[in-house]
Design brief:
This protein is α+β, with helices and mostly antiparallel strands. The protein has helices at residues 141-152, 159-175, 205-213, 242-246, 273-281, 302-305, 324-334, 386-392, 433-441, 446-453; strands at residues 18-24, 32-37, 42-46, 52-54, 57-64, 67-72, 75-80, 82-87, 99-101, 104-106, 114-116, 119-120, 123-129, 132-140, 188-189, 217-220, 231-232, 238-239, 256-257, 317-323, 349-358, 364-372, 378-384, 403-409, 415-423, 431-432, 458-461. The longest helix is centred in the middle third of the chain and has 17 residues, at 159-175. The protein starts with 17 loop residues before the first strand and ends with a strand. The structure holds zinc ion (2 copies). One zinc ion binds at residues 180-181, 188-189, 191, 193-194.
Length: 463
């Protein structure tokens, strides 16, 4: 059946689109990839001609100048601008079924970056860009979603959680408000910058069921606007407003407390600077019923609910300690060396850090760095946005920007040790994944979960 492309899709289309997911991008620096074609037949075509059937072979696709070649014991294809590997029959939604891609990057640039070997259904397309490999997986949206659900969190999570995760993942893709990777012929990438997609690698029957039972369902508001439903791992207790993350308002999203309506946690909302330390470290945390807290989702069970990619635990409240010299090195590498030296002087000695602006969840969105340049002149520089703050304050990536600073100084007043005492994991806007899991564990149905995280919304079947 011919389906429309994701870019052409609108709420009035009333049909399931196909999605093109980048599995490998030029920034991954790959000029070849190994793939394992299973016993079911795959048609491999490149350039002119009808193509050739392959089964049960290992193959290698390599970039040569601006073209790609497919090499295997069973035959070759290309060099051609595009090589397509298409299944003879639709690939079933079963764990581990499909073509295996070896050495795909997961967690690009984040602290959890690794190489994985996912299996994928649908069609694969290989091409070259800037002398590097681009691999695209094209498949119907409803076949893509189980691979997201089982990649973002474990496919063994409670069904009602998986259903809520499916609806937000589908709504986010279909709303298509953030244009990413526009220089390539793809809709989304396979990774955290868009949504995680691991193909059929970790599929469970429950993940497939969650997608089937919510087929075509998205969230809309009263004006029938499709909700661009963001989500992140753990809000830390208060859901962030999209305004403080992306500097835009989004229909259906707002700041709120991630707890039952009668929870004690409501005393922290709105969260003032005076309340922040108590919110992040107070004794109330021992008893709290905040949905993403360890009281609702115990730390010891968390790894079984997270994706295999994530190292679980310690996300709800955390602490990072630096010696001044270590933090100075990180700031030089990740911030100062990337600034225009005619505008921002280079950092020699760190004098202090101060959060100038925070969002509703305590997430810093403007961080001031006071420092001496190599000539001994004092300067101030600002790091703006929760994302950049998380990027420049950690060798890889900080859990969140909801932190307070504790600075120990030597007798001369220079910082010696800098501690970040924080809460939450991710930007915190929209659905809180660990909180939604907590709600499902407490018996909430997926519709109630969605209505807790999004305001004034209803479920809508768009095809
Ligand atoms: Zn992406
Ligand atoms: Zn939460």
């Amino acid at each position: 059946m011919a389906r429309c492309s994701l870019t052409a899709w609108t709420l009035d289309s009333r049909e399931e689109p196909v999605i093109r997911v980048a599995m490998v991008l030029p920034e991954d620096g790959m000029d070849s990839i190994l793939l394992k074609i299973p016993s079911r037949g795959y048609l491999v075509s490149g350039g002119d001609g009808p193509g050739q059937m392959f089964r049960s072979v290992m193959a290698k696709v390599t970039v040569e100048n601006r073209r790609v070649s497919f090499l295997s014991e069973g035959g070759v294809a290309g060099p051609a601008e595009v090589i397509k590997v298409s299944p003879e029959e639709p690939v079933p939604q079963t764990r581990g079924v499909g073509v295996q891609l070896r050495g795909v990057v997961a967690g690009r640039g984040f602290h959890w970056e690794k190489r994985i070997h996912p299996t994928v259904g649908g069609m694969l397309e290989f091409r070259a860009s800037h002398g590097r490999l681009v691999v695209v997986n094209e498949l119907p949206l409803e076949d893509y979603l189980p691979g997201v659900i089982a990649g973002e969190m474990s496919g063994d999570c409670p069904l009602e959680f998986l259903k809520s995760q499916t609806v937000v993942a589908r709504a986010w893709v279909l709303a298509h408000t953030e244009k990413k990777h526009t220089e390539y012929p793809v809709d989304r990438c396979n990774d955290d910058c868009c949504q995680r997609y691991h193909g059929t690698t970790d599929l469970t029957e429950r993940a497939v069921d969650a997608v089937r039972q919510t087929r075509g369902q998205v969230l809309i508001d009263r004006k029938k606007t499709l909700i661009d439903a963001n989500y992140s791992k753990s809000c830390g207790g208060i859901i962030e407003s999209p305004q403080h993350v992306w500097f835009v308002q989004k229909a259906g999203q707002r700041a709120t407390v991630d707890a039952p309506t009668d929870s004690e946690a409501h005393r922290f909302f709105p969260l003032s600077d005076d309340l922040l330390m108590e919110y992040l470290t107070g004794d109330w945390l021992k008893q709290t019923d905040v949905f993403c807290s360890p009281n609702v989702v115990p730390e010891k069970s968390l790894p079984s609910y997270l994706s295999k990619i994530d190292e679980g635990g310690g996300h709800f409240r955390w602490r990072v300690d630096y010696d001044r010299h270590d933090l100075e090195k990180i700031l030089r590498d990740k911030f100062f060396s990337r600034q225009d030296p005619s505008k921002v002087a280079f950092l020699d000695t760190l004098l202090g850090l101060r959060v100038c602006q925070r969002g509703d969840s305590g997430r810093a969105k403007d961080l001031e760095i006071e420092y001496l340049d190599p000539m001994g002149v004092t300067h101030k520089a600002h790091v703006v946005s929760e994302y950049t703050i998380r990027e420049v304050l950690h060798e890889k990536f900080l859990f969140s920007s909801a932190f307070v600073l504790e600075i120990q100084r030597d007798p001369a007043g220079a910082p010696r040790r800098i501690s970040l005492i924080g809460g939450g994991w991710g930007h915190g806007a929209g659905l809180c994944q660990i909180g939604a899991l907590g709600m499902a564990l407490r018996g909430y149905k997926y519709e109630a979960i969605l209505k807790h995280y999004f305001e004034d919304v209803q479920l809508h079947e768009c095809y």
